[in-house]
Amino acid sequence: MELHFILAIALSIVAVVPLAFALRGIARTQHAGADGSWTTPDSERQVERLVWHRTYNDRERPPAVRCGRYRLLERLGAGGMATVYHAEDELLHRDVAVKLIAKRFAANLEFVERFHHEGRLWANLTHANIVSILDAGYTPWDFLVMELMDGGDVRTVLHCRGRLSPGQTIHVVSQICDALTFAHQQGVVHGDVSLSNILLRRSDGTAKLADFGLASSGAEVDRRNPGEIMGTPGYLAPEVAWGGQPTPQSDLYGLGVVAYRLLGGAATAQTGDPRATTPLPTAAPRLLPLAQLRPDLPRHMVMAVQQAVALEPDSRQESVAEFHAQLIGRHERPLPVQLAATRLRKAVRQELPRAA
Ligand SMILES: Nc1ncnc2c1ncn2[C@@H]1O[C@H](COP(=O)(O)OP(=O)(O)OP(=O)(O)O)[C@@H](O)[C@H]1O
Ligand SMILES: [Mg+2]
Predict the structure, then answer these.
(1) Could you tell me if 60 and 80 lie in one domain?
(2) Cβ(236) to ligand 1 under 6 A?
């Protein structure tokens, strides 16, 4: 009797577990198809997912060596939600970067949906200072393919150099101003402007903005969990840290912090949280006055940066373009941007290990 009972339980587990996976696969596939995502045939996707779920568990699974036609060569870095690899496109014979969603999120329908949603917004932004999305796929699980930025990210440059000169800062920040102005004109908010999301090209020092990871177009704002706050602590505008929607003004705050750190140094000192009663660990810290850290800076630069990182959105510049005009002192003597660009190019070449 007892044996029968045990056999019955074992049989139901054998029958129910694959069924549960199949149903989950179908749910995901149908959703992906319904919102017009880029994935190829539903049945294929479903089978791939089932095979993966049945074959491996989280700890044993070896790192993927291929994502579709892209052969993963080297890990470039990892963030909160994905790992980025240098990869080879075996069809077109070129180097690319593959952003593979973190394994722990791959079975989370809502997260994968958001990843795709963001990927689509990003893929439709074509600009010289926005990292291009080249492709996307779902084998072994969801990934984006980007152009490879072989100079790495600006956070690494800053760690190598300590801080940048005014001209070098303008060289980087001006390009990101262009990218953000363009995105805002298209109704897209970046939502996570930070040093690690600014990438460099080694050959000419071009800076590009990556990871429209929290991007949301005006029409498609889609934050499913109102209590959930995403972004990089330290770059988050106070109003977003307090649960508000990211806006062009909060992107401006993030860019202001980027400029502040480039000029003030990587380990920039901060005073305590100005709203210390907040329960949110991500609340924006108050930054020490830039003039105190860099008394050598031109006054218009200090004022532009300080205004961009104002706690109240209304106290900031009206747009990223206005911030840019102030930063470069449009009505004052321009800084030697070209000279700075040459120096930055040289620094990138000398001080960074090759990403490619
Ligand atoms: N297109 C790319 N080309 C070259 N390197 C890249 C590219 N995209 C990202 N990287 C590298 O991979 C690292 C990890 O990127 P990822 O976006 O996953 O995390 P992050 O930007 O550090 O943090 P976050 O979770 O806030 O995005 C980056 O810091 C960067 O050095
Ligand atoms: Mg990133």
Answers:
(1) yes
(2) no
